[in-house]
Amino acid sequence: MALYALGDLHLGFQVKKLMNQFGKVWKNHVRKIEKYVTQTVKPEDTLVLTGDHSWGRKLPECQEDLAFIEGLPGRKILLRGNHDMFWDVKKTEHLNEVFAGRLFFLQNNFAAYGDYALVGTKGYTFEGPFYLDRRGRIIGWDEEREAQAKKLVARETGRLRESFRRAQEAGYRKFILFLHYPPTNILEETSPFTEIAEEYGVTAVIYSHCHGESRFADSIRGEFRGVRYMLVSGDYLGFRPALVLP
């Protein structure tokens, strides 16, 4: 039994949206996902997909995308991404009823993995716009958008704490934390999400969302204050699932 993670599948079987314009790595990316997940993940393993599953805006437009995910090996756990418009937080329980035994939707709840609780939420981070000088140094930013971002961060940290609360009530004391957005932006060394990770003593924080080589270093990777941070964006990994726990 092993735990893997992969983010940003960006499937579009029904809406016919391709990702080729985002770089060569995205050419035939669906075939790569199927190939590498099938090669890596065994039926007894767990695969957490960290958001941006489908371009469909309504659930009926996502049926083929979700069926593709369902057909991948292992137990599949899905996290919300910023493009997952089909997934209303208030309808998470309904989604888990509809897809019971096939897919699990991680939001305001938790999933068990051995003696670990898998907790998570979409997250949020202020991504700008930032204003640069002639040397490319950041000299300012859009304060109105930053203020809105702080509201969204507060909302998402509240949802994350609910995930932890439920896991703790069930008796769990070991955690893996999943986010879609990176835990920090390019200006931050810490954030409310890193503080929560340290508060609960999580083993690892797994996130995605960062696309293209210029964005892969936007947030924390590796060990930081006793927590392991992993970027699992599909294009960063070449669509090969990352091993989180053996």
Write structural notes for this entry.
The protein has 246 residues and is α/β, with parallel strands linked by helices. It contains 6 helices and 13 strands. It has helices spanning 29-40, 63-70, 92-98, 143-169, 192-199, 234-237, and strands at 3-6, 46-49, 75-79, 103-106, 111-113, 116-121, 130-132, 138-141, 174-179, 204-207, 222-224, 227-231, 242-245. A 6-stranded mixed sheet has the order 5-6-9-10-12-11, with helices on one face. The protein has a 5-stranded mixed sheet with strand order 4-3-2-1-13. A two-stranded antiparallel sheet has the order 7-8. The mean pLDDT is 95.
Topology:
Elements: E1 3-6, H1 29-40, E2 46-49, H2 63-70, E3 75-79, H3 92-98, E4 103-106, E5 111-113, E6 116-121, E7 130-132, E8 138-141, H4 143-169, E9 174-179, H5 192-199, E10 204-207, E11 222-224, E12 227-231, H6 234-237, E13 242-245
Parallel strand pairs: 1-2, 2-3, 3-4, 6-9, 9-10, 10-12
Antiparallel strand pairs: 1-13, 5-6, 7-8, 11-12
